[in-house]
Amino acid sequence: MWELKYSILIHLMAYPTDRQIAKVPYPKSNRLMEQDLFHSNGNPSISKLTEHLKNEGLLDERCGLRLIELAKGLFSREPNMIAVHRPLTIVADIHGQFYDLLTILAAGGDPANTKYLFLGDYVDRGQFECECIFLLFALKINFPQNINLLRGNHETRQMTKAFQFKIECKKKYSSDIYNACMDTFDTMPVCALVDKRFLCMHGGISPDIRTLKDIERLNRFSETPTSGPLCDLLWCDPAEDFDDVEKPNQPNFAPNNVRGCGYFFSYYACRDFLLNNNLLGIIRGHEVQKNGVRFFRKSSRTNFPVLISLFSAPNYCDTYNNVAAILKFDENKQMQVIHIEARPHPFVLPNYENAFQFGERFILYYVTQLLLNILNMYSPDELADEDGRFDKTGEELLNKKRLIQTMERAYADVKKTNKIALNLRGLTPSYKAYKTLLERDDVKQLIAEAEKGRIKNYDQAIELDQIFERRPGT
Ligand SMILES: [Mn+2]
């Protein structure tokens, strides 16, 4: 009896009735338990998981770890280059945009009877990275033949630490969940061969990879190195003048100074690689596209684009205003582009802070402002002296005022950080990474723009965001 009353009390405390926006549902407060998620056959329930995650619910720690471990077992047994066949839906970068991933799965076909190939970059930038990982891993466990997940350049310790997957794991779960994810990322395959005609990877081709055998020979089971073929597959980009084949002296491979590692590859590098390996085209992700997809120059031999660049995160970083795309290959060798529009998602403060942590910086600033305004009602003479005589209390007040002035300057800075973080939305990585970047001229420009207001269009976003597309520390 007593217990029942107590639980009603908790219930009333947890759910106040006078909410500002009553139609917004409460996040799920219970953690999804192992026995509730997993069927008796050992597979997780996709519908239960999706419903729970969609409502911002978290998983019980053991439940999360079991999903990650089961997926790891499956990836570990796959070759470096997995063979996939039509019909097939190809999806590129997701970047923690869980609510858009749900749109993608609805548009791409039911995973129970549709083959999928994902080109990597499931985490970082967006704010629902754990949700993406749990759902994708659960799909892999249920339909291992249908769900193919390649590794992207963000599925590494270095990137998740500089961006925010590590922070998200620790805020929502624990270091154990983070470390288990990292060990699992180490096991993910890096390439896929579609119908023996299309080679797919996250970044691009490498000067160190001449044949498909070279891919099969790689040892992929480690943190992605900072150079070499494994790094290149995940990091390379097509050259800016890829389609301009008339341009003289184009190198096949040039160091990628935008990313700080990997290469820019040319049309000829791509064409030669395809020719040598009897392939029709390369399909890759890694770079945002305004309309979700870019078809590069066609080969005169095949009349088919040698390279297709795909991007599946709409309104990337809540800032780019881009439309995303997925590719559907049907039985009849037809390729269909499906565009994906961004959909609204729950609001999350930068670095997953709660309103009190975030608001504290504003409050500290306004409190010091208030105190200063009171002290400013008196001149320094008035504070230090009384009737022309030296006064100890006045001297102390003057010292306090100096201290508050220093505090006010510091709090003005952190208040500015708040404002910039809100204006930049998904563009800024963690505060920590952002602080070390503060001194750079291009970053100062970014911040000056962000102070003026929110980044509004695609061109502005892509220009300002370029610094964050680099490998950290390069
Ligand atoms: Mn990428």
UniProtKB/TrEMBL annotation:
It comes from the Eukaryota. GO terms for biological process: calcineurin-mediated signaling. InterPro entries: Calcineurin-like_PHP (IPR004843), Metallo-depent_PP-like (IPR029052), PP2B (IPR043360), Ser/Thr-sp_prot-phosphatase (IPR006186). It catalyses: O-phospho-L-threonyl-[protein] + H2O = L-threonyl-[protein] + phosphate. GO terms for molecular function: calmodulin-dependent protein phosphatase activity. Coiled coil: none annotated. Its EC number is 3.1.3.16. Residues 150-155 form the Serine/threonine specific protein phosphatases domain. It is an enzyme of class 3 (hydrolase). SUPFAM superfamilies: Metallo-dependent phosphatases (SSF56300). Pfam families: Metallophos. SMART domains: PP2Ac (SM00156). Gene3D superfamilies: 3.60.21.10. Keywords: Hydrolase. Transmembrane segments: none annotated. Belongs to the PPP phosphatase family. This is Serine/threonine-protein phosphatase. It comes from Didymodactylos carnosus.
